[in-house]
Design brief:
The complex is a heterodimer of chains A (981) and B (95). Chain A is an alpha+beta fold and 981 residues long. Chain A has 23 helices and 50 strands. Chain B is an alpha+beta fold and 95 residues long. Chain B is 18% helix and 35% strand. Chain B has a four-stranded antiparallel β-sheet. Chain B has a two-stranded antiparallel sheet with strand order 1-2.
Amino acid sequence: MSQLFRINGGLTDRSKPINFTFNNKQMVGYEGDTLASALLANGQRLVGRSFKYHRPRGIFSAGSEEPNALVQLRTGAHQEPNTRATVTELFDGLTATSQNHRGSLGFDFMSVTDLLSPFLSAGFYYKTFMWPKAFWEKIYEPIIRSSAGLGSLSMLEDPDKYDKGFLHCDLLIAGSGPSGLTAALAAGHAGLRVIIADEDYVLGGRLLEEDHNIDGISGQDWVLQTLAELTEMSNVRILPRTTIYGAYDHGIYGALERKTDHLADSGDKPRQVLWRIYSKRAMICGGATERSIAFANNDRPGIMLAGAVRAYATRYGVATGNKVAIFTNNDSGWQTALELVAKGVNVVAIIDPRDTAPRTHISGVAMIMGASVCNTSGRKALSRIALSNGQTLNVDCLAVSGGWSPNVHLTCHQRGRPVWNDTIAGFVPGGDLPVGQFVAGAANGDMTLGAALKSGHKTATLIAKDLGFTTNSSKVAKADDENFAIKQFWHVTGHKQRAWIDLQNDVTTKDITQSQAEGFRSVEHLKRYTTLGMATDQGKTSNVLGLAVMAEATGKTIPETGTTIFRPPYSPVAIGAFGGRERGQHFHPTRLTPSHKWAKEQGAEFVEVGNWMRAQWFPKSNDKTWRDSVDREVKKTRTSVGVCDVSTLGKIDIKGRDAAEFLNKIYSNPFAKVPVGRVRYGLMLREDGICYDDGTTARLAEDHFVMTTTTANAVLVYRNMEFARQCLFPDLDVHLISTTDQWAQFAIAGPNSRAVLSKIIDKVDMSNDGFPFMACSNITVCDGTPGRLFRISFSGELAYEVAVPVRYGDALIREIIKAGKEFDITPYGTEALGVMRIEKGHVTGAELNGQVTAFNVNMNNMISIKKDSIGSVLSRREMMIADDQIRLVGVKTVELSDSLASGAHFVAKGEKPTTKNDQGWIASVCYSPHFEQHIGLGFLERGHERHGEIIRAWDGVRGTDILVEIVSAHMYDPEGGLQRG
Amino acid sequence: MIINHPLLGPRDANEFVHLGDESLIDRPDGMADDAANKFHNYMYLRDNPAGKYRELWYHDAGDRSWLVVTRDTLTHEIFDVELARDVARARGRSK
């Protein structure tokens, strides 16, 4: 197909042809074309099927407001559904396919829905698929799902890159039409740091699409001259292909820059960049969007917005038809007629419901006043229109103008409400603009060119002065004000056929009147019931028309009816752009332990613990399953010696004269009198009395403590401690610093741990008297490397933790393994760590889950009543220490072969597993190599006095129901002789 | 939002963690006779004004200071930002 509809003129480069395909048909356009203009040049009028009725649809607009011409762009993983052809810059090799049809675009099996339309009115789904109830999940929903939606996803991972960035400026200008450009000039000359952004790839706004004169030169030349001037200014940044999509608090704007969407291949550069723009002031110069008039069958391919018809002729050199008629209620439609005629486009007639024509004569154009278009025909393309005066006209394009709606969106993103202006028949920004925001040009209701140029310059000059810049009275560009008169004429009545308001969602005038009749009086309800103004175009061409029809139906005025709330984004933003680089493994940072490299060499399996990667177990060649590895690690540790990287535990360094007093307030148990050289276990509560965290804190000097927290709570505990330090006890002499990442720490546990460590530690009396249980000290290891030694035990064995500055961590683990070789030392991972702590009855996050108190975990005696510490008062509330509360217990399966799962509930034998009979739950389980059976920790009502009882562990999720024996939580070495020995 | 940190100047709200009502500074004395009642009020009773509100923010990705930010909950306008420690001292929390 050659470009039969190409005419002279326009901004496309005829020396640069571009090949592309639409539905596998080869076509040619020119550089500067959009996909839409190239399709029209090639005579392709039918481009898609409508959402609900599968009606044939063509290109409707020439901008981002497009409701119809949504296509699938590119192929394979790069495939992108619902791309607006009107804003898709043509590139060589572009492939596009039409959407939303089964069978071909020309013959769509789903178009049967069009015949069923009498049944498919507003609320059809709500009313129809209600019964029988059982049909919903199995029958209705799958059918609706498969027929809903427009384009389809490739279901492949997005191969494109996205980026994010921050920009700062004195003045952000959204839109580069006449007002935006004069504003940029004025602000740029005054010395402000200016960012001017436009969603289009060519700047100039409507000056590209209409013929005007500014300062004696053509509007298009004036744009080129102005851009050349702005480019010279180092304080002005021009961002084409950039949509300001949202206005946020404190002058922050969201912007999406399409970096490589217009290229066949991104060349490994980011496809799009999401900017966060910090502006001192912002000017919205977003122009206005044309809207349609509702009349019977006003949705056929070939029926377009009048401004779009003008834009295709003027900017792209494309005639949208061989015989064009114009239906307008305002003067801009007449301007379109003049420009089309001047370009040699055959304009058959102009139809205007007003009685008096704004002009006396346009050569070759029939002026039909006081009339309207009342029906159209032509199934896949417009062929004829019928007028209210009985006339019919054979046309292939009908240009419709129902007036212009100022683009107030960005002025309303903080719940501002626009106000109705009767003169221009549109909503203009209300008084409650976001802080620092101004509006100029058509977006502010200055619909004529001269006024727009002036208001852009004036507003920018005011802003410059307000920010303290001196404005040298740069001259204002001048142009005439074109006529802009409008009659509020919304829809043609007196017919029974469908007249579309919202083309994207197939909402007709009947849907509006029907929903009004059914009681949907609020405009927000109307929107949701009919879907008016939803989806990718957000009703840019349809909202005001819908409101007007609703207002008429309710007998209210348009301002009384009001608008729906405008929310970001202004136009669709890909989720990929919001994600930026934070996807896949980069969704959050990865933290590696100091022994990670070494553990990897050992073939360790790793597990994510928060951001950390921790060794879970260390498989050996004759381990058949993970359990073999874990059992071996536990047994080896309990019989000889094991080593585990515990650097992930939170470490907080606490210094100051009042450090002990401070800890006394943070921990519920006493800390004031911990001697230097000793470690104490500490229990931390929330202020509401619930257990928060636990850990050990070592006193290395009179004024120096080192606290450990659980891995998961490290950040939160630190934050709470800073809160206590700064807000509750502001004058205590104490300072905190997180040292989690500064120290590598290893637990060495088992009867031979002392022997191994003695080979590494320099000059420390390691005897039980010299360095007893819960001792701590600054030490050196391996001939002089500074470190710390703590005699603490999570496993229940004789155990130590040794810490060195993190840069020595890798070296230290290798030294420990070397020293432990003669004892066959085993590294152990988080699984073995977990098994040993369950055997020993130590609680972790599985038990301290934010629901349990110290009383519940049998540690109520750790809450000192002699002092005021965080949470102590509310921990003593009656219900929290009542006798029948749950208590921490150990459990063992009655049958040695049974296995346990955490989450099982305790139910008495012979009772039904109901909420009423629920006596508690199992929190942690493991297979214990020591007891050679499954064991666990759990909470049971009055559990502390029920040791020896047999009860059911009922698990409704996994469908198990087994008998367990309640025992003390301290299952392994309950007297603690091993860890003290 | 941008929070004008008294020590560091304007910083993006992303760097901060929000806690809640400034009254959390007024922790009662746990050793007082009616401590239980006072703690109940302290923990569970809050104003929820539509308008000016003084609330605690923490500069988590910054200098780790706690701030009292006076913010309009309707418009997000920020009127004042103070170091919480200074506020605490002014409210009599010095020892």
